[in-house]
Amino acid sequence: MARTNGAGSNVAKETLAYCTSCKMDLNHIVVAMKGDRIAKVQCLTCKKEHVYKAPKGVTEPGKAKPTRKKKETTAEATATSIEAEWEKLMTSHKDAPLKSYTTKGHFILGDKIKHPTFGEGIVGKLIYPNKIEVIFRTDLKILIYGGQQQ
Length: 150
Ligand SMILES: [Zn+2]
Hints:
By secondary structure, the chain is mainly β. Helix content is about 10%, strand content about 35%. The chain starts with 13 loop residues before the first strand and ends in a 6-residue tail after the last strand. The structure holds zinc ion.
């Protein structure tokens, strides 16, 4: 009479486990059981046998680690951040009147201006005595203006 061993029935079955060598969740073959728990597994990727570790992808509630995002500081990231900054500024100044840019105009920080070539922008910096740094959608431009009012 053939009778399968209940406790050992999972041996040689595939299971997802954390591989201590590959340092990631991978499919493993169950090598040994301890009661009804998996004791030892063999990684299908690196072929190493090790103690069974639950997959890390399965996070227990309250045990999730906070994820930290690193800020990219590449030139490419800077280029795209100008547009993001511009959009943010345009949104926060959406009620501000749009001033047409002229070299004789007077502008203050935060003024919304319309430039015939660069489009709409926000004055981000005043450069003494007669220049303004304007954030346009795609670029920062230094423009000449009428100078600071006394
Ligand atoms: Zn492995």
